[in-house]
Amino acid sequence: MEGAPGSAPFGEWMNGLQAVIDREMDDDPNLRALWLRGVTDIAKPTALYAGEVSYLDEQLGRLFDALKDRGLFDRTMIVFTADHGECLGEHDIFFGHRTLYEETLHVPLIIRDPSGSRERKRITSLTNHVDILPTILDLLSLPLPEKARGKSLIPLIRGNGAGFDDRTIFAEHAHRLAKSLRTPRFKYIKEMKSRDLVYSFIGMPFCMKGRRFLFDVSRDPGERRNLAAGASGLADRLDLVLERWLNETDCFVPAAESKIEKKMIEALRTLGYLR
């Protein structure tokens, strides 16, 4: 661990994680943290993560080659994205995505439209996962369902950025443990306050403290300086906007009312989401 960025926090985190494994979870086959047993250098799991990304890239290449061999590539729409990113030591969070920092929220969105221009273009405006459905339907000239959220990115892709420059993007963690609001300049994060320990995906317990964060991401892209206590009440104003959005989009369905097929339950158990 000598010389490794964030090595002291990583060592403390590993010691706490090992204690949890030894005390409570050593026999849990779904616990993802077991692969970290004995690791002392954060560079190793970070390299493994990079290797996983490289493996996916290779498999995508095989898929695209197969489409080309079958004469399908030039008439296939491709949309590549991810459900979330991962903290690899940033903010002293290791191999988790329980927060709404940019390491979790800023994911790829690559769209290939076979009917459009072959020119590659990089978009810097704020976009959201809810924009993917409207974009695909727009490309296919299909109607958008009435209750669908988000907006088509096709005008933005084709050079018309009207309505995107001052856009506000919202996000929330599972079970609304945290929620966030993002403008082109500011990022506001609000945690739920909980007295109970919550277990993250790899088994480390943490407690939601009900904190608020405000970052000027135009000057502080690493989200290091929390401005929530100052900024002339900006955090309070953004909080009102965030709560209004949460009330307007509340679509929570109690577990007793939801229906999940047995096949889906088994798939979730295999992936480690259910025990």
Secondary structure topology:
Blueprint: H1 7-25, H2 43-69, E1 78-81, E2 87-88, E3 94-96, H3 102-105, E4 109-112, H4 132-139, H5 154-157, E5 169-172, E6 178-182, E7 186-191, E8 198-199, E9 205-206, E10 212-216, H6 234-248, H7 262-270
Antiparallel strand pairs: 1-4, 2-3, 5-6, 6-7, 7-10, 8-9
Summarize the structure.
With 275 residues, this protein is an alpha+beta fold. The chain has helices at 7-25, 43-69, 102-105, 132-139, 154-157, 234-248, 262-270, and strands at 78-81, 87-88, 94-96, 109-112, 169-172, 178-182, 186-191, 198-199, 205-206, 212-216. The chain has a four-stranded antiparallel sheet with strand order 5-6-7-10, with helices on one face. Strands 1-4 form a two-stranded antiparallel sheet.
Kindly describe this structure:
With 275 residues, the protein is of the alpha+beta class. It has a single domain, classed as Alkaline Phosphatase, subunit A, CATH 3.40.720.10. The protein has 7 helices and 10 strands. It has helices at residues 7-25, 43-69, 102-105, 132-139, 154-157, 234-248, 262-270, and strands spanning 78-81, 87-88, 94-96, 109-112, 169-172, 178-182, 186-191, 198-199, 205-206, 212-216. The strands form 4 sheets. The chain has a 4-stranded antiparallel β-sheet, covered by helices on one side. The protein has a two-stranded antiparallel ribbon with strand order 1-4. A hairpin with a 3-residue loop joins strand 6 and strand 7. The protein starts with 6 loop residues before the first helix and ends in a 5-residue tail after the last helix. Residues 1-6, 23-32 and 196-205 have low confidence and may be disordered.
